[in-house]
Structure formats: structure tokens, C-alpha cells
Amino acid sequence: MGSEAGTEPPRRVTIRDVAARAGVSKGAVSLTFNDRPGVSRATRDRIFAAARELGWSPHLSARSLSSSRVDTVGLAIARPARTLGLEPWSMEFVSGIESVLVERSCSLLLRLVRDVREEIAVQEAWWRGRQIGGSILADLRDGDHAVRYLVALGHRRIARVGGAPGLGHTTIRKAAFEAAIREAGPGGGRTVATDFSGEEGARATRALLASADRPTSATGPRWRTASSRSWTRRPPAPIRPPPRRSLRGAARPRRVGASRDARWPRPEPRPVNDGPNHDP
DNA sequence: CAACTTATTCCATCTGCCTC
DNA sequence: GAGGCAGATGGAATAAGTTG
């Protein structure tokens, strides 16, 4: 498309423009917008004012480039589009994920696929293309894949926020989880029982975080239970979320896999299921 | 020591230069 | 002209250095 003579497209406002407007360096702008110390209150106010005037906010791609972090989580669901809205758990599942991601200024990349094989292929393609910094793996046929994956990421203390003891499916999942933990080797896992409610999940998770040997990752029977707020919302001091953590949740009756922090060493793509897309 | 600047780094893509 | 290579580019984060 040709441009008319003398009408250049407007140039994108960058951190450099904000720095120039505020009369500081790019570094000071970066420190300010990342809420890091080293910039006075007055200078921060000046930088925020300059950014407002210019309508600037951090460029996500550039941020990903420098920090090796992608603030997008991928979710591929093997479900026909027309039935998705008819399944209450699906909508609750997605909305639960969103409620957590929004608090962390993260985005959800959602795609509907035909089957588990395609789901895994899509996730791996996203991952290879660095389109996502974390994955939510749904529809795995057997739950210990997720635990294996967490172990592959480097997690050695994995907790499971489970349902009420005595229920059949709770017992089965607990046994599967413990078997996978044993197989993974030294480190160990713990299961905390809840009544499946978000409040109970939050309480249990908070208790895990407060413990001396707090887990580096957690799994749960439902996304809202596993992730429920306490992992993502800043907990009361001095408890802080583990700097590197993975969340996993499962919405009945399916199992859900792992998400990961992009700052972790990137493991080689590994077979989760048999599929056409595996590297040798 | 707080407040700030500078230099380096990230990595896919593009451009320019050189050789065959 | 084709192919290969080196260097520049984009925007932001951050470690290290500087200033008062």
C-alpha cells in the first residue's frame, strides 16, 4: 500500500520517547514501570505523567524478547466449538483460569481442537514458537503425565490439593498421584484434603505456602482449587508464592496438565502421548 | 547510599557486502 | 545471480557503574 507524499505513518511511542519526555534514562523508566527500587517518588510521578501524555505502555513482544518471558498461557481443548458453551464445567474452567491470569496481567491463548493428539501438537507448536510461556494440558489420559512433566521442569516438592477423603475418585487420584511421585524419585509429594470449594482450596494452598518445606508446584482436582487465588494473589506477609511454580488443576472428570514459568530452563519437548509431532 | 545512567543482553529478521 | 556470512535492528530488562 503506497503512502501519500509527506504523510508518514505515526511512529510507535517507545520507552525512549517516555524517557526523553520525563528527562530521564530508559533505565529509569524501566525501573519505574517494573516497580523496582532506585527511582525517587518525584521522578516516578514524572515518568508516569510522561507515559500518560504519550499513551505509552510496555511493548509485550519487546518485553518477552529481553526477559525471555511470555505472559501468555496456552490452552487447547478437544471439544467441538458448538458444545463448549453447553458444558458448565468448561465455562467455569476457562473463567477460573482467566480470573487468575487477569490478576497477573497474563493472557490466555485458547484453541479448540479435535482430539488429544491435536491438542498436544498445538501446545508443542506454541511452545516451540515461544507464543506461550506456560501450558495447561487438558484431557491427558492418565494423570501421572502431569506429575512427570512437573518433575521434568525441575520440581521436586509437588503438592496436591485434593478432595474430601473417602470419596472413590478422590482415593483413586490420590493413589495415582502418590504412585507418580514415588516413580519420580526423591523429593516427595503431599496431599491436602479439601471439600472442593474455592475457599477451602485457597485455605489449603495458603497453608502449604506457609510450611517450611513449601511445594514448588501444586496440582488440584479443579482449577479454582489448585490455583485458587492464594497462588497468584500476593499472600499476607511474610508468605510469598514460590518464585518458580507450576499450577495444575483438573476439572472433573478430566485431568489437566501443567503450566510453567517461562523463566525455567526450557525442557526438550517430550512425548506426553503418542503423536505425529515428536522430535527424535 | 540513594538515585540515576550506561552498556549489555535477548533473538528473529532484514540488509548489505563479499565470493563463486 | 545465487549463496553465505556479518552486522544492524527492534524495545525492553537488568547488572554494573557513576554521581552527589
TrEMBL record:
Comp. bias (Basic residues): 242-257
HTH lacI-type domain location: 13-67
Extent of Low complexity compositional bias: 221-234
Query: Can the keyword Heme be found in this entry's annotation?
Result: no
Q: Where is this region: Disordered?
A: 210-280
**One MF annotation (Gene Ontology) recorded for this entry:** DNA-binding transcription factor activity
Q: Which domain of life is it from?
A: Bacteria
What are the record keywords, sorted? DNA-binding, Transcription, Transcription regulation
Coiled-coil ranges from the UniProt annotation? none
Compositional bias per record (Basic and acidic residues), positions renumbered to this chain: 258-280
Pfam families referenced in this protein's UniProt entry, alphabetically: LacI
Annotated PROSITE patterns: HTH_LACI_2 (PS50932)
PANTHER family recorded: ALANINE RACEMASE (PTHR30146:SF155), LACI-RELATED TRANSCRIPTIONAL REPRESSOR (PTHR30146)
This protein's name: LacI family transcriptional regulator
Lineage, please?
Bacteria, Bacillati, Actinomycetota, Actinomycetes, Kitasatosporales
